[in-house]
């Protein structure tokens, strides 16, 4: 992470702690990681300096940026004070966006994170010197120590909700937990919105949506993220859908959800939420289209080189560039294995034919001697 770069909206005033948005819902599979990644990229397109923190031990957000396997140092080391964020955050291809990756150590040692009483403001303190405007945290789908660490420092929580029949109960439980953290550990914890994700035109989904909107009112963002196959396609390519398809329904949904979330944070008028003014929607979309033109084209070139066998990943700077390259060279293994099988097949056939010829010769010689 290069701290010498200047903030787009750099002010002469001393740096303020970044606004921290934790993306959390106790339910799994509701698009938390998808939302965290798209939100982080959209915020960057709006001109903010953003740090995406992957606190999910599955490391899906980290993998979404082409980092595989998980690096040796990342979020766990920063939280526990074993590493400095400036040393372990990774550059991404999106200028102004950094990634603090999940690590194997987070997976193995989640229980070693600081006891809850001392978590208050810990992550905020660890990330204070980054100079970013916004930190987006992808939380695991449970109240693991990592989630508590994030909620104990967060400015606000963004809750993605997939309106299936169990969504309401999941949201009520999550809401209850947020209220509990607010009352006990982080009095300033706010709500950055409830975001309906993967919505479809089915009556059950519509009913659940109606109930949630009626109960949670203007905490629910007006924008919904429709279910769209492009989102899964984008995830496979290692791109957020806002970059793969910025003008499609899901891509535009995330851009508009980002604006709405920012407006909601500003409307809450909390004096500690300081954000420079965002770029316009048109400017953000233009930036996303530019990224699509350059990054996606680069990806297509690289997947063409790998003959469609490699897992295509966007190229990034630093560690990620070498990791992406190693993914590409791994691909020919399968082709080599196929050539070997063909050789074995030819050798076996030749041996079989030679065996038949010898047998025929022996039979012929036998007949000659009788
Ligand atoms: N709008 C969408 N349309 C279609 N598939 C989606 C959408 N959003 C997320 N998904 C898919 O749903 C699955 C779960 O999403 P994910 O972000 O990993 O959820 P979580 O982090 O809550 O477990 C992933 O396969 C993802 O690609
Ligand atoms: Mg996830």
TrEMBL record:
Residues 20-189 form the AAA domain. PANTHER family: P-LOOP CONTAINING NUCLEOSIDE TRIPHOSPHATE HYDROLASE, PARA FAMILY PROTEIN CT_582. It comes from the Bacteria. The chain crosses the membrane at residues 345-366. This is AAA domain-containing protein. Keywords: Membrane, Transmembrane, Transmembrane helix. CDD domains: ParAB_family. The lineage of its organism: Bacteria, Pseudomonadati, Pseudomonadota, Alphaproteobacteria, Rhodospirillales.
